[in-house]
Amino acid sequence: MLIKFGFPQSGVWTLPTLDTPVPESPFENEFLTQMFNLTMKVSTPLTIAIVYFTTVHYLNPIIRQRQLRKYREKNPEAKDKKLTEKELKKLPAAPYAIATTSIFKALVLLHNVFLCVYSVWTFVGMTSSIFSTMDLFKGDILPSFYEALNLENYTVKKRDIFFHTICDSNKGIFSSIITKEGRPNLELFGYWFYISKFYEVLDTIVILLKGRPSSLLQSYHHAGAMMCMWAGIRFQSPPIWIFVVFNSFIHSLMYFYFSLSCLRIRVPIIFKRILTSLQITQFIVGGSFAVLHSFVYIIDTSMGPSDSLTLVNCVSTPDQALPVILNVAYLAPLTALFAAFYIESYLKRNKQ
């Protein structure tokens, strides 16, 4: 067996020391390297996430009052009526003047098209990187270990190759070997995906300018994603590939739908329902699969086949375990918020 399953090694789930050196920048450009080092500081995503979250929930009551005022102007008979929370949520949007201009609508369309194309690029690029690295392990790296273990006739299991590809810090998808061969690795794809989480804040700005409050689901989603992606790339935790691959796939569909909406192309409700179901599924499956990585042991390829072969844990340090804990802690309430959204948007609406 080239991998085995077992309990995580002792000490992995202890308090992290957070003294892991910052990973080497994947860029040669000096400006991009400086940006990489700056955004690897915990203060960067934490400050942006806190400012974003608090600003949104400071502005929400202002937007709600604007909606209420516009509603009462159009419905004088409701001037003194006190609306329930449910009625407040159903108030018509009260867009600001800029949101009604053609330029704004064109920019929103470009924003959605850009994120759709970028998400497709990330998904295709990351999955291609995984498959090409699996070929590298199958053809050049693992065969020498078969011989050392007298496994010449061993039937290669894709499971063995896959987990070595994901977990091997020396030659896997986080290593510079892939980059030297001209293929971007997980650090590069993951870093740009992390940066995209800051850019996606524009989604919230668009909603506010269109005269609707931003939901807790959206603000929690964006703020938490910044911290989870930072932790995964900062500590090069193998399971972060799940976030990049799963989320980029869902975002490809989501921003495609948003682009169609901008073009006033009506999308069947079943598509939106499936999309929400896929989002919930990615949280449950992705979170569970991330935890599974900590129970996987692979051959330590840094030792060489002629040395005494040892097994190393896929998640081998408390710092690498921290992103797993953060992601699971983040996904639990996020799944509940999406489930509540699904019930409110589809099940209750169907009954009505």
From TrEMBL:
Superkingdom of the source species: Eukaryota
Mode of membrane association: Multi-pass membrane protein
EC number: 2.3.1.-
Catalyzed chemical reaction(s): an acyl-CoA + malonyl-CoA + H(+) = a 3-oxoacyl-CoA + CO2 + CoA
Gene Ontology CC annotations of this record: endoplasmic reticulum membrane
GO BP annotations, alphabetical order: fatty acid elongation, monounsaturated fatty acid; fatty acid elongation, polyunsaturated fatty acid; fatty acid elongation, saturated fatty acid; sphingolipid biosynthetic process; very long-chain fatty acid biosynthetic process
One Pfam family cited in the UniProt record for this chain: ELO
Annotated transmembrane regions: 42-63, 96-121, 239-260, 280-299, 321-343
GO molecular function, one term: fatty acid elongase activity
Keywords annotated in UniProt: Fatty acid biosynthesis, Fatty acid metabolism, Lipid biosynthesis, Lipid metabolism, Membrane, Transferase, Transmembrane, Transmembrane helix
Location(s), subcellular: Membrane
Similarity section: Belongs to the ELO family.
The protein's name in its UniProt record: Elongation of fatty acids protein
Species for this entry: [Candida] subhashii
